[in-house]
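Exercise 3.2. Students should predict the tertiary structure of the chain below and write it as structure tokens, then compare their answer with the key that follows.

Predict this chain's 3D structure.
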Amino acid sequence: MRMIALGQMLQDEGNSVHFLTITENKDILGRIAEEGFTIHRISQDGEWEYSQDAKQLVKLAEEISASWVILDGYKFDTAYQRIIKEHGLKLMCVDDLAQGHFLADLVVNQNINASRDLYSAESYTKFILGPRNAILRREYVKAKSGFKRRTTEKIENVLVTMGGGDPENVTGKVCRALDALDGPRMNIKALVGALNPHYEDILSYSGVSKNRIEVLRNVGRQMPELMKWADTGIFAGGSTIFEGLYLDLPLLCCLISSNQKINYVAETNVEDKYKNILSGLRSVMDFFLLKDIDVSCFNAKVIMNGALSV
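Answer key:
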């Protein structure tokens, strides 16, 4: 989804965009095709091997006279980048982890704690860092126009999303945790991505929950309107938080994978001017964090407008 967003930006500047992918997921391929991007497939013999993958990428880039090669993933290490640079191609890496040495011409890291000090890179490498450079799909920009979020002391509408996969079924655990709260029934929209193996389990639970749970799969362009509908969101700590923050949605964020750690600010590091933010969080804190419920299934942080966590 992050590359779809970047692809839209490039299209809007008059560029043609090609996706080279190994995925066989029809929902993801369909979403890419809907945007008018050209799709190419990686062929592989047996287990994935970086040089075989990179050589196919180089071959395609040369065939279509690509101005830039853009990588987004956790297997594109120094050795992979070297193959691309040895063929004289311009290279951009979209990164979360700041691991290894970068040979790319440009590194983009939109995460909250991103800084140049984290990186080992060539002298020519340029950096675009931090949430001010968040990669947003055009439907969010459109949804933002004229929108003003209503303030509420009572949370009725909750949006839950844990990204495309969610192998540990944190979505289901969050729905059960919300059921443990006292108070009136809530309206919950639980979003299940294309790679989520727990769709049937979550759908089954929605039928017995005390809350009104609607399970939605592959929402695509509906996402901005769902964020506008919600009083609060319970999200994984990945790229979706920037979309929520852009639409002024108060968030509870669950750290469910190691690549999301960069989006958390330790309380001891929060600048003095943000320390009074807790007063503005009281309704959300009372609603979720201070209740006697089992939240041992995930680490919870609260991320509010301005992309700071407490």
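Discussion points: The chain is about 30% helix and 20% strand. The longest helix spans residues 50-63.
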